[in-house]
Amino acid sequence: MSGSVTTPRFKQNAHDALGDARLQRALGHARNFIPRRGAAVERLPEFEALRDSARDIKNHTLAHLDLYLEAYERKVTESGGFVHYARDSAEACKIFLDLAKARGAKSVTKGKSMISEEIGLNQAIEAAGMEAVETDLGEYIIQLRHEAPSHIIAPAIHVTRDDVEADFRKAHLHLPADRDLSQPEQLLAEARGILRNKFLNADIGVTGANFLIAETGTSIIVTNEGNGDLTQILPKVHVVIASLEKLVPTLDDAAQLLRVLARSATGQDMSVYTTFSTGPRRAHDPDGPEEYHVILLDNGRSAMLGTDFEDMLRCIRCGACMNHCPVYHQIGGHAYGWVYPGPMGAVLTPSLIGVAEGGQLPNASTFCGRCEQVCPMRIPLPKMMRHWREREFERALSPATMRYGLKVWAFFATRPWLYRASTDLAMRALTLLGRKKGRFSWLPLASGWTEQRDLAAPQGATFQAQWRAKSGATQ
Amino acid sequence: MSARDEIFAGIRRSLHVTGNEAPRRAAVAARLRGAPRGIVPARGQGGLPTFQSEALRAGATLATVASAADAPDEIARYLRDANLPATLRMGADARLEAMPWGATTLEIARGASDGHDLNAVSAAFAAVAETGTLALVSGPDNPSTLNMLPDNHIVVLFAEDVVGDFETVFDRLRARYGAEMPRTLNFITGPSRSADIEQTLLFGAHGPRRLHIVLAGVEAVGAAQT
């Protein structure tokens, strides 16, 4: 498993993130995704129908996953590639390291891959004495900072331009100390130059896969920078590392999913490079890898099939849910404590690392429902977060104060007359107390709220009382 | 039990299947064989004009020439206007070979790139009007390194190869290559870019900084649109 997991400390992480002025400034950029996606969707009248189509394709694939895997494996083998199966992170890393050691590899370039983050591949490569170089600009930046990605498609979204300049000056000591790096273009040019050499001298290139195609034994990667392409066509060996649920039946099915992916992610109609790779280079090809390997990772996914969480396996990692999440906007990705942040992370993380470790994440939701509204795969994220909350409660993992509070609430809620009388009394008291300012900057038992913001004072009667009065008046 | 066997067993346990059910096998075989079309956006039916406007929108530049024989002149002009050296690397594509390169002063190199070329030209396998996307296939004709390593990538595209949608490109691939895909199929939509530094859009991240499309076989020879 990747790096250190701080998910159990989620509440503290979120608290720290809220107080981090630098992070709060950087997080403002995450909101830019919203209008971009909106404009792309607006331009495509078929978008909603494509979402249905995409959902149905994945559901069909998952229901026949064993058979599509067999077909996929057959095609990869026929085209001269190799498929390796890994039950968990450790097994996936071992398969990779065995391949790398047998080929005497020293340097490994990497395209952006969340699965590689999930299994902690960089740490494994470095522990084995090899060099792992992230080549996506955002991933390269966070690798220099020894950080995990804070967003699944914009891994360095928490980093400011000044941070990048400082990181580059610290890391690229062979370059003149007085060089000008004040413009983002200069930072990009410097990274391009340094990584170009890494690409040309790498022994193995590792990429993830956005999709795997059973019809042809093809893996697809989608990038804007072109780093994934240089990663796979220059070294002698291309290793794809992907999880089981990336599979789709046909090329045509992949086209359906591609049409919703970039629009949902960055608001582009298509990302710049959508690359289909099938096997190693052919006999007469002048370039491309001589070997092609696919490491297929399970890591808990086969056990999600047929459960309340199967829908999560449709996820295509576009990031739309976190781009539209008010909680993510406030705390950023690192607070979630592991690889996958935002609403999709809140659902997936407990499945992968266990509800005991990840159970707090599904509580970080206002259930506003925006994630489900924008999810191209129509994954019912709020419903699944509710499932996790129930499980956390059933397994007595939620904190004692919360469980006690719920018991007190249940006592009143199951006695409607008492509930009405006591809430009515409480509302009157709060209305009276708050009549001067119209809000509270401090309240007993509510410091968690009032430390960050005021609580609005009630305006008078309870909702139930108002509802009764309203329906009485209209009937 | 091997990892493979255990994963297959786990999937089948979760799905409550054995893997031998005839209807499931038939459904999978039918889909793989039939590759049913999904939702295809109407936008692609706009043909050449849609391709041109979408490609420009994606940040490519585009020039039209009446016939392939005019492509070398246009490429020489493009490089000159951009103050780029008159050098060019290309593969062995017969359609490129047939063009009158000798009529220009371009210095031509052949084969895959080792990363030291500023300019390269490829011939596209097809293009998709829907999104202004080029489709290029690997091989000696158009080595994949030419698509990615040079700073300036020029792509000659024949007007008859512009199709409406991705599905039509796939049909053409199946017709040309049969059961086996080429090693690499690159769908390219505009020049390389990154927004990883404070969401500022910058061109030329790792791939080409410029993508210039020479669309051949279009009668109305317009001035280059940049």
Word description of this protein:
The complex is a heterodimer of chains A (475) and B (226). In chain A, 51% of the residues lie in helices and 11% in strands. Chain A is α/β, with parallel strands linked by helices and 475 residues long. Chain A has two domains: 7-302, no CATH class; 412-474, no CATH class. In chain A, a hairpin with a 4-residue loop joins strand 5 (211-213) and strand 6. In chain A, helix 4 (47-63) crosses helix 13 (251-265), helix 10 packs across helix 11 and helix 17 runs parallel beside helix 20 (381-394). Chain A starts with 9 loop residues before the first helix and ends with a helix. Chain B has helices at residues 3-15, 22-34, 47-57, 71-81, 94-97, 145-148, 166-177, and strands spanning 61-65, 87-90, 107-110, 119-123, 126-128, 133-137, 152-158, 162-163, 184-188, 193-194, 202-203, 210-216. A six-stranded parallel sheet of chain B has the order 1-12-7-4-2-3, sandwiched between helices. A four-stranded mixed sheet of chain B has the order 8-5-6-9. Strand 9 (273-277) of chain A pairs antiparallel with strand 9 of chain B.
Concise summary:
Chain A has 475 residues and is α/β, with parallel strands linked by helices. Helices cover 51% and strands 11% of the residues of chain A.
